[in-house]
Design brief:
mainly alpha; 2 strands; 72% helix
Length: 201
């Protein structure tokens, strides 16, 4: 398996994305504030808090931070795959997991908080999900256009090279896609283009 194919694996990309998100959260010290129900244990709080930090926010500063880390993380599949559908499907899959478990755990363990804040958080998650899709599609299209321009330039350069090495027999008019020493049609010696231009004394 090639190294690039290994990194293109969805599981590996998923791990890489979560490692990057975790590093941002760790070094920034970001922590989303949750008012848990009184029945929630300390260990349950830690688990829910850990997952919620990846996707939930309450204020403008929190929104800016969460949007920023997901923006950076969403670029990874875009550059690895260079494919619109694969990029946004990978990003949505990565985004789905913390959202699903955050809402599922809150619903099961802290029902009162979930019921009073679900719509608020769901709209935030929907907005963030739309941003991730737009980033994936937008940057994928930009990269595609850049690659298209580069490919067209390469083709044009190849055509120029091909045209430069083309030659024609001055005796019989036979055209060649190279510069042979002799014409295989009439066996005349073909002069190099430099000699044709300068002339032989």
């Amino acid at each position: 398996m090639k190294l690039i194919d290994f990194f293109r694996s969805k599981i590996i990309l998923f791990i890489i994305q979560f490692l990057i998100l975790s590093l941002f959260l760790f070094y920034s010290g970001y922590q989303f504030s949750i008012t848990f129900d009184s029945t929630v244990t300390v260990s349950q709080k830690r688990i829910i808090q850990f997952i919620a930090n990846y996707v939930l926010f309450d204020n403008l500063a929190g929104m800016s931070f969460i949007f920023f880390i997901w923006f950076i993380t969403s670029l990874i599949p875009v550059f690895f795959y260079n494919n619109l559908k694969k990029a946004y499907s990978m990003n949505l899959m990565t985004f789905f997991f913390p959202n699903f478990f955050a809402y599922a755990f809150l619903y099961k363990i802290s029902r009162n908080y979930f019921n009073s804040n679900f719509l608020h958080h769901f709209l935030h998650s929907l907005l963030l999900g739309m941003l991730i899709v737009m980033i994936s599609i937008g940057i994928s299209l930009i990269l595609k256009n850049i690659m298209k321009v580069k490919t067209e330039e390469q083709i044009e350069n190849l055509n120029i090279i091909v045209n430069r090495i083309k030659s024609k027999c001055p005796n019989c008019g036979k055209e060649f896609n190279s510069t042979p020493l002799y014409c295989y049609n009439c066996n005349s010696k073909l002069l190099p283009k430099t000699e044709e231009n300068v002339g032989i004394k």
